[in-house]
Amino acid sequence: MLMESSLSSSWGIFLNEMSTHLSNPREFNIWFKPLEPVSMQGNVLTIRVPSQDYSYKLEGDYFDLFKAALEKAFGEGINLKYLVPTVNPATRREEVANTVRQEEAFVTHLDRRMLFGNFYQSICNRLAYTVAQSIVEQPGETAFNPLFIFGASGVGKTHLMHAIGNELVKKKPGYKAVYVPAQTFKRQFVEATITTKKPELFFNYYQNIDLLLIDDIQEFSEAISTQNAFFQIFNHLKMLGKQIVITSDRCPADLKGMEDRLYTRLKWGMTVEIERPDAHLRREILTAKVKEAGVSISEQVFNFIVKHAKDNVRDLEGALTSLMANAIYCNEEISMELAEKVLSQTVGVEERKINVPEILEVVSRYYNIEEADIVSRKRKRAIVQARQVVMYLSKELTEASLAAIGAEMGGRDHSTVIYADRAVRDLLDTDTKFQAELKEIRDLLEV
Question: Does pLDDT of 203 surpass 80?
Answer without folding.
Answer: yes
